[in-house]
Design a protein that fits this description.
Layout (H helix, E strand, L loop, with lengths): L5 E5 L8 H8 L13 E6 L9 E3 L2 E12 L2 H19 L5 H15 L4 E12 L4 E4 L4 H14 L6 E2 L6 H11 L6 E10 L7 E4 L7 H8 L3 E9 L3 E6 L3 E7 L1 H10 L3 H26 L8
Antiparallel strand pairs: 1-6, 1-7, 1-12, 2-4, 3-4, 4-5, 5-6, 8-9, 8-10, 10-11, 11-12
Helix pairs in contact: 2-3, 7-8
């Protein structure tokens, strides 16, 4: 159950919302499969496949958002709409106007949706109501925004905000690369992306390449800023930090996974052990990373 990405948010520390109330409020937005005329559907599902919307263990919560999207390529709709526009012109003696063309496209979409294939996916969300973390296993901000939208519709009060630090990730990563020194507890790996400002946004990417040479410093001196940097924390977790304070390509030390497998008696126990290990490690990683970025920024 190890997360592979983190979109990092803050909720109030020692959040006072009781678990039972949280579960009850989530039930307002349960996932329902798409109907014949629905293009997409989103809602909460059980993260463990049972009747509970919140999996709670050691004061750590896990929830999951399910989503279904009908796959109806725009090119298919366009082609069919063009054919109907031709028939319209043959019958009426003139081409359909803009409003009529839009009505034709809408009609085609409604007729094709019931036959479209569906894509289903789920995204897990970890909440630590004590330390105040809310982290999504999502690789994009768009997916995070979808989750926040449903969460806002579910809860009476959703005090969620992006993690903001005193020092921007781009500025901090530039300092680490220029000095050749990572903050305490971290090491710089061999993956990096630097991007120039301006219209062209010239980009340089390094993959499995040493980052401690003059070449990197030369790019920094020319005004390029790091947008992605590979890091390892305490020789336990490797990841890519982005200039948007996203954490991607999370990889946990194999020994953590091996220990979990040795301790577990069955799949349910393995899930709980992995969840406990993962949240414990991520809690400390996020604390150390925040400090490496100068601490949290004060709220406006």
């Amino acid at each position: 159950m190890w997360f592979r990405n983190l979109q990092v948010f803050r909720i109030p520390r020692n959040w006072e919302l009781p678990l039972a109330d949280f579960d009850k409020q989530l039930s307002r937005q349960l996932f329902q499969a798409c109907g014949s005329q629905d293009a997409q559907s989103r809602g909460w599902i059980s993260p463990r496949g049972n009747d509970q919307l919140v999996h709670s263990l050691n004061r750590q919560w896990l929830i999951a958002l399910g989503s279904e999207q009908k796959l109806l390529p725009g090119a298919v709709v366009k082609q069919e709409a063009q054919q109907r526009a031709i028939h319209f012109e043959e019958e009426q003696g003139y081409k359909p106007g803009r409003k009529q063309m839009q009505e034709i496209r809408d009609q085609v979409t409604m007729e094709l949706l019931p036959r479209a294939f569906s894509r289903y996916r789920s995204t897990q969300v970890w909440l630590d109501p004590i330390a105040g973390w809310l982290c999504m296993d999502a690789s994009s901000t768009a997916r995070a925004d979808e989750i926040l939208e449903v969460l806002g519709k579910s809860l009476d009060d959703a005090p969620v905000s992006r993690l903001r630090t005193q020092v921007s990730p781009a500025a901090a990563m530039a300092d680490w690369l220029a000095s050749g020194e990572a903050p305490s507890g971290f090491t710089v790996d061999r993956d990096c992306e630097l991007k120039a400002h301006g219209n062209e946004q010239a980009t340089v990417r390094y993959v499995r390449h040493a980052l401690d040479g003059d070449e990197i410093r030369s790019h920094l001196e020319q005004g390029k800023q790091p947008t992605r940097l590979g890091l390892t924390w305490n020789d336990r977790i490797s990841f890519i930090l982005t200039d948007k304070l996203e954490i991607k390509r999370l990889a946990f030390l194999d020994i953590l996974k091996e220990d979990a497998e040795k301790q577990a008696q069955d799949n349910d126990e393995l899930f709980d052990i992995e969840f406990t290990l993962m949240t414990g490690e991520l809690n400390q990683l996020l604390t150390d990373l925040t400090q490496a970025l100068g601490g949290e920024a004060e709220e406006d």
